[in-house]
Design a protein that fits this description.
Blueprint lengths: L18 E4 L6 H4 L5 E6 H7 L8 E5 L8 H14 L6 E6 L1 H13 L5 E6 L2 H7 L4 E6 L2 E8 L4 E4 L9 H18 L1 H15 L3 H21 L17 H8 L3 H18 L5 H13 L10 H11 L6 E9 L2 E8 H14 L1
Parallel strand pairs: 1-8, 2-3, 2-4, 4-5
Antiparallel strand pairs: 6-7, 9-10
Helix pairs in contact: 3-4, 5-6, 5-8, 6-7, 6-8, 6-10, 7-8, 9-10, 10-11, 12-13
Bound molecules: nicotinamide-adenine-dinucleotide and zinc ion.
């Protein structure tokens, strides 16, 4: 797949998408860094596992982990450390970690002294296939996800796939869910490849992981290139995500599990609206099941509908959802809450 995200220096295109150093080793990060001073932002786990490969000349700032630390409070702590270290507009901040580290680093760097350079070395499957691409950076506010943020691109993203081997299975599945999303909305070829290579993907076989991350980056980059500010096309990346955050919060499931359920609901609605052949919806369900991602709603339908209604409290009776016209082709479609309600009841009954 042609990858607009992977650019050679000297490329003439407007730099919406940063240079991607695909498959480069973390040990080589140092050679790509420029600027007077570099400061690494990371978390404890990543530091414990990989600090031996960090650029030796950089100072580092350690932040906590988990969504609860993705706050302005942590950003303020980082600003303070920047001040103590004498970071200025000639410096570069380097986020080494998962999506949380990348989102916070991008936001702190984009706002400190009205913006300093930053780069990412994402270390989770989700961060390599999704979060480090697209330029959205930010933090949560009062428990609401990504309420504060900027759209600003890093100088480059270095993706060392070998670090993924230390990820727990649950984190791998969060990445897989986003990879399946990318295939479902934009590439039948990638979808078929996943069907044939799901076991290799799950076991992080090098060739398979390289291809899937490369394809994911290509798909997300090309969508972002068309619509960086999310006026239309970029909304397709929300496939399966409309209620994901509420499902995570209320049912205590992971992001990957919530997205899996969201995609199954959206596929069902696509079939009922006469957009998607039933066979395609089944293929999506079967692929998710291969990874042991959930495809059945085992919660009380009333509680799910309650979550959806609260989530959409300001949106009136109709909502814009991302549906599928075929595997590999997404569209934005308006449906009624009643229709959604019927599908939820149906899915809770029939599984
Ligand atoms: N900016 C975007 O476009 C975008 C897109 C998707 C998600 N996100 C954000 O990404 C965040 C989730 O990111 P995530 O799933 O990477 O979670 P995460 O950043 O919380 O990382 C998960 C855990 O894995 C650990 N870890 C990281 N690398 C490891 C490695 N190589 N080996 C072992 N453990 C490792 C971390 O220490 C952490 O405990 C969310 O906050 C979400 O909002 C942002
Ligand atoms: Zn997601």
């Amino acid at each position: 797949m042609n990858n607009p995200g992977i650019k050679q220096s000297g490329n003439q295109k407007r730099d919406i998408n940063p240079r991607i150093l695909m498959g480069e080793s973390l040990e080589c990060l140092e050679h790509y860094l420029s600027g007077n001073k570099t400061v690494i932002i990371t978390d404890q786990r990543v530091h414990r596992l990989y600090s031996k490969h960090f650029p030796s000349s950089s100072e580092f700032i350690m932040i906590g982990s988990g969504e609860t630390i993705k706050t302005l409070h942590t950003v303020e702590f980082i600003y303070g450390q920047f001040m103590n270290m004498g970071i200025d507009r000639t410096s570069t901040a380097v986020g080494i970690g998962g999506g949380i580290v990348c989102d916070i680093t991008g936001y702190a760097a984009s706002t400190f002294m009205r913006g300093i350079n930053f780069v990412f070395a994402p270390t989770t499957l989700l961060a390599q296939a999704d979060a480090s691409i697209g330029g959205k950076n930010g933090v949560n506010l009062n428990g609401y996800k990504n309420m504060i943020g900027t759209i600003n691109q890093p100088q480059f993203v270095l993706m060392d796939h070998s670090v993924l081997r230390t990820l727990p299975k649950s984190e791998i599945l969060c990445g897989v869910s986003e990879i399946i999303k990318h295939a479902a909305i934009a590439s039948l070829d990638m979808f078929s490849y996943l069907e044939q290579n799901w076991e290799n993907a799950l076991n992080l076989k090098r060739k398979t992981v390289n291809k899937l991350i490369n394809d994911s980056v290509a798909i997300k980059s090309s969508i972002v290139e068309k619509d960086e500010k999310e006026k239309g096309e970029r909304k397709k990346l929300n496939f399966g995500h409309t209620f994901a955050h509420s499902f995570e919060k209320v049912f205590g499931i992971s992001h990957g599990e919530a997205v899996s359920l969201g995609m199954v609901i959206a596929a069902r609605l696509s079939v009922l609206n006469g957009l998607l052949p039933e066979g395609d919806a089944q293929r999506l369900k079967q692929l998710l099941s291969k990874f042991n991602l959930p495809v059945r709603l085992v919660f009380e339908p009333e509680s799910i509908i309650d979550v959806i209604r609260k989530d959409k409290k300001k949106g009136g009776d109709r909502i814009d959802l991302i549906l599928l016209e075929s595997l590999g082709k997404a569209i934005i479609h308006t449906i009624s809450i009643n229709e959604l309600q019927e599908v939820i009841y149906d899915m809770c009954e029939s599984g």
